[in-house]
Design a protein that fits this description.
Oligomer: single chain
Number of strands: 4
Structural class: mainly alpha
Helix content: 55-70%
Largest sheet: 2 strands, antiparallel
Strand content: 5-15%
Strand order of the largest sheet: 1-4
Number of helices: 6
Distance between the termini: 62 Å
């Protein structure tokens, strides 16, 4: 134990490769976000103006404060967009590479689909499929362990919310067939 300078390096074998090509740079992503925020500010400002963004005899109308918040949001997005345009001469940094985007989409797409599946299958069945799929496909855990873990988690969730606390959760055809 004389050498205290030993460094332990642990590498992730599934980490994205360094040579993956860039999909987008920081400047492009910042500009897109600023334009989207500006569009949202315009939409919110218009809707709140339509609702009523002034004072009447009883005080401010319903859209008064949200209208001015949308003006602040629009000003902030415009400020950010000008900042992006000023930095145009500087070299752009990579925001995400193809390999990194692939990993993000491996989580985002199933989660996005889970939100839609929950409307038809119910919370418990959709959660079971999401957990088992994540564990088996992305985590590369044995299917029987993935299915068992998903079942136990969903059973605990069902007992906690539906039975113990009597919380109304989105139900699907399976729960309807079981009489819940």
């Amino acid at each position: 134990m004389a050498n205290q300078d030993i460094e332990i390096v642990v590498e992730d074998p599934t980490a994205p490769e360094e040579s993956s090509p860039a999909v987008a740079d920081n400047r492009t992503v910042e500009a897109v976000v600023m334009v989207l925020l500006g569009a949202l500010a315009i939409l919110l400002g218009w809707d709140n103006w339509r609702t009523g963004a002034s004072w009447d005899d009883t005080g401010p109308q319903a859209g008064y404060f949200p209208f001015y918040l949308s003006i602040i949001l629009g000003g902030a997005s415009l400020y950010g967009l000008v900042g992006v345009l000023v930095k145009r001469s500087e070299p752009a940094e990579t925001f995400v590479t193809r390999a990194q985007l692939r990993r993000v989409l491996q989580v985002f797409v199933p989660t996005f689909l889970f939100c839609f599946a929950m409307q038809w299958l119910g919370l418990y069945v959709a959660s079971f499929l999401l957990i088992a799929g994540f564990m088996a496909i992305i985590g590369k855990i044995a299917w029987w362990k993935s299915l068992l873990t998903a079942f136990i988690f969903v059973a605990i969730m069902f007992v906690t919310f539906d039975i113990a606390f009597d919380v109304i959760m989105p139900k699907g055809p399976l729960e309807a067939a079981l009489g819940r």
